[in-house]
Design brief:
The complex is a heterodimer of chains A (about 270) and B (about 500). Chain A has about 270 residues and is an all-alpha fold. Chain A starts with a helix and ends with a helix. Chain B folds into 2 domains: about 240 residues, P-loop containing nucleotide triphosphate hydrolases (Rossmann fold); about 180 residues, Rossmann fold (3-Layer(aba) Sandwich), CATH 3.40.50.300. Helices cover about 40% and strands about 25% of the residues of chain B. In chain B, strand 17, helix 17 and strand 18 form a beta-alpha-beta unit. In chain B, helix 6 runs parallel beside helix 7. Chain B is globular. Classes of the chains: A mainly alpha (about 270), B alpha/beta (about 500). Chains A and B meet through helix 7 and helix 8 of A and helix 12 and helix 14 of B.
Chain lengths: ~270, ~500
């Protein structure tokens, strides 16, 4: 197996572990151990026998918080990526296939979202909309679709120029037939690759929003942990165990998604 | 000057050229003929050691007595272009699109430190000197090919290798390019090794002819003798595949009774922006009749076909099918498209590479909601297109099939809807000589058995002679002459038809 395949496999392994933690953690972790009013441990405990990764400013175990936060980060990353890739694919295929005024309008809208700084727009959206996980997903999804739309449109245009599409039209095939039988199957591999890369950036975006205090305050996520750590003075306390684990976890999961995406890209792109 | 002794080339375990012996003296012109995969291009590329690393070359390649195989890198660089140069096939891909052609012609002179003038070279190939400042896309196909020839002559080589130099060009332009090449070879006493699948092109240019088949040299001799008395069956097949206009033996169509009209085109005009591609065309195709629409590239014949199919909207004029005007949209257009089917030039791109033969053939049935008994209908159509037994092919993907088989799949995909008219755009232009004959025979058999009418669009007058009942000649968007095949091709009345006929290379 080539190098690309090996790194992709390593990425997939990391993701499998992360997914397992995300699924199992809520079942195993006792709600009391994450409730600030019921925890018994001291605040700011360094890593030790009782708490593998120490405790936070309220005495909760950082290891448990990490496990609990995995699910939120992955959930937001995946749903936001699906939303953004979904919008992007739809806009891309429609503007590539139909052309004309409709395509012009869609492309101008795409350009509008492309030039807006995505993070600023996401911040603005999450301050205006009611707080919650849905808002975060929506904010990320609505700001990150333009690049997918551009790419899908380009692929649609190349496919539409091929003689077999002309043949399909001559056979009597309408828009639905051409899109469903010829355009979508050739766009899907590209979209899948793009989706894995979009998950990575969505996780970063979620962490950023949460770190800025715009996340769902009732849920624990890696970004929210960083926000808490910064807010309650982890740095003056020299509590590195509260800052490093969520930061590293974000880096590792994002890297894993990127590696898987690159490996998939190598698989679906023909060598010739 | 050039001597190949016992040349064999292997790619891995596969032998593509076996034990070829060839000699070429200065001033001699040698044509190397063969179908795709016969190894003719491999032989040509081996002369300048241009084969990929994976090729294993055995035997001797002597260029002026020096073995190219064992030359040092520096010596090889000196020999390339200065002693022998190549006119590559497909000038569009061999020229750099972002550099002026003058700079590109000058490039080998700069690399070799030879003196010379680009203007002089352009004059030799009959191009005006201003063209040196043009970019490749500003030139026509024939002009680009002449630039390639000028480039090959830049360092004054004694041997020129031309690899399918006219394949993508239409007859008139092909005749011009061949004339330039022939004159230069005679004037400068060059050796010419010309590679082509088209015997008539080689007969036009070369004194000697060598025929390759499956990597072996099967025949070699004076061009006239080889073509007149082929000794090897493959050579005979190649010569038979190129129809001679006027020869009754090459006329395969049976005389058809005067038919009643099936499709009528009345005063059709199609504009592309400000250019008028089709300019007031009247054309009638009868039931079961085969009409050839001939003309050069850019004459508007493909646009006319697209418009008849309803793939393009006409600016004015009418298309009448079976007594009723063809609808421009909606259900009526869809129903019309069931009756009229399209066969495209390049079968490898006309099939979706992801669809199996079954899916490709069944596509029309699915579009028209005729899905009941799909399997039987697809099998019948595939067998009609002479892919037997169908079960062997149904699950194949296009890239697993040969060009001829792919074209049969395209034809099967059209037949499955039981059309009454087939519009075929250069149906055999991208196929090998032997396959070409089979496809032509297939089209004629379909007419005989199913009463299928065809509109064949082609720049190949030989094909028109072979297959058509009537010929329409198109020039600059207008039909300048139409009538029965004999009348148009044997006693042409329009100057343009005469010019087209003159340009056809004669075997």
């Amino acid at each position: 197996m080539n190098r690309m395949g090996r790194t992709g496999l390593a990425g997939a392994g990391v993701l499998a572990v992360a997914a397992l933690v995300a699924l199992v953690a809520p079942l195993l972790i006792d709600a009391d151990s994450l409730d600030v009013t019921r925890v018994t441990a001291q605040a700011w405990q360094p890593p030790g026998a009782g708490h593998w990764l120490g405790t936070d400013h309220t005495g909760r175990s950082v290891a448990l918080l990490m496990a609990q936060g995995t699910g939120t980060s992955l959930f937001v990353g995946l749903t936001a990526a699906v939303l953004s890739v979904g919008i992007g694919t739809l806009v891309g295929i429609v503007s590539g296939h139909f052309g004309g005024l409709l395509a012009g309008t869609l492309l101008r809208v795409t350009d509008f979202f492309l030039v807006l700084p995505a993070l600023v727009l996401a911040i603005a959206l999450s301050t205006v909309l009611p707080r919650g996980l849905g808002t975060i997903v929506l904010a990320i999804g609505l700001t990150s679709w333009p690049s997918t739309a551009r790419m899908v449109r380009a692929q649609t245009l190349t496919i539409e120029a091929r003689p077999f599409v002309e043949r399909a039209r001559a056979l009597g095939g309408g828009h639905g037939h051409v899109i469903a039988r010829h355009v979508v199957p050739s766009v899907v591999p590209l979209v899948l690759v793009n989706a894995t890369l979009a998950v990575a950036s969505a996780i970063v975006a979620e962490s950023t929003l949460a770190f800025l205090g715009l996340g769902d305050p009732t849920r624990i996520s890696w970004g929210a942990m960083l926000h808490q750590a910064q807010l309650h003075g982890a740095v003056p306390q020299q509590a590195w165990w509260y800052l490093l684990p969520p930061g590293l976890a974000i880096v590792v999961v994002v890297l894993a998604f990127t590696l898987v995406g690159r490996a998939l890209e190598a698989v679906v792109t023909p060598k010739r | 000057m050039l001597e190949l002794k016992n040349l064999s080339v292997h790619y891995g375990p596969k032998r593509v050229v076996s034990e070829v012996d060839l000699t070429l003296a200065p001033g001699q012109t040698l044509g190397l003929a063969g179908e795709s995969g016969s190894g003719k291009s491999t032989v040509a590329m081996s002369v300048l050691r241009l084969l990929p690393r994976t090729a294993r070359v055995e035997g001797e390649i002597l260029l002026d007595g020096d073995d190219v195989r064992t030359m040092s890198w520096g010596r090889l660089r000196a020999v390339r272009w200065a002693s022998a140069s190549i006119v590559f096939q497909g000038a569009m891909h061999s020229l750099n699109p972002v550099r002026r052609v003058g700079d590109q012609i000058a490039e080998p002179m700069r690399l070799h430190g030879t003196r010379g003038s680009v203007t002089e070279l352009l004059e030799q190939v009959e191009l005006p000197r201003e063209k040196a400042r043009a970019y490749p896309h500003e030139l026509s196909g024939g002009q680009r090919q002449r630039v390639m020839i000028a480039m090959a002559l830049a360092c004054g080589p004694r041997l020129v290798i031309a690899d399918e130099p006219t394949t993508a060009l239409d007859v008139v332009v092909q005749a011009q390019v061949l004339a330039v090449l022939k004159r230069l070879v005679a004037e400068q006493d060059l050796g010419l090794l010309m590679i082509s699948h088209d015997l008539s092109v080689l007969a036009e240019t070369c004194d000697d002819l060598a025929v390759m088949h499956r990597g072996e040299l099967v025949e070699r001799g004076r061009t006239r003798e080889v073509i007149a008395n082929p000794r090897h069956p493959h050579t005979a097949a190649l010569t038979a595949a190129f129809p001679v206009i006027g020869d009754p033996a090459h006329r395969w169509a049976d005389p058809a009774p005067a038919p009643e009209p099936l499709l009528q085109v009345r005063d059709l005009v199609v504009d592309y922006g400000r250019t008028r591609a089709v300019d007031g065309v009247d054309l009638t195709i009868g039931r079961g009749e085969i009409v050839a629409l001939v003309g050069q590239s850019g004459s508007g014949k493909t646009t006319l076909a697209r418009t008849i199919m309803g793939l393009r909207k006409p600016s004015s004029g009418r298309v009448i099918f079976d007594g009723a005007e063809v609808a421009r949209s909606g259900k009526a257009l869809k129903a019309f498209r069931r009756q009229v089917q399209l066969v495209l030039q390049d079968p490898s791109s006309a099939l979706n590479p992801r669809h199996t033969v079954f899916d490709a053939v069944a596509e029309g049935l699915r579009v028209h909601g005729l899905a009941d008994d799909q399997e039987a209908q697809v099998t019948a159509a595939v067998e009609r297109a002479e892919l037997r037994p169908a079960s062997l092919y149904l699950e194949s993907l296009p890239h697993e099939l040969s060009g001829g088989q792919q074209q049969r799949v395209v034809i099967a995909g059209a037949l499955v809807l039981r059309p009454r008219l087939l519009v075929a755009d250069e149906p055999v232009a991208s196929l090998d000589a032997s396959v070409r004959g089979e496809i032509v025979a297939l089209l004629l058999r379909l007419r005989r058995e199913l009463g299928l009418a065809s509109l064949i669009i082609t720049h190949d007058l030989g094909l028109a002679w072979q297959i058509a009942d009537r010929v329409a000649v198109m020039h600059q968007g207008k039909i300048v002459e139409q009538g029965s095949v004999e009348q148009v091709l044997l006693t042409p009345s329009h100057d343009y038809t005469r010019a087209l006929l003159r340009a056809v290379p004669q075997v």
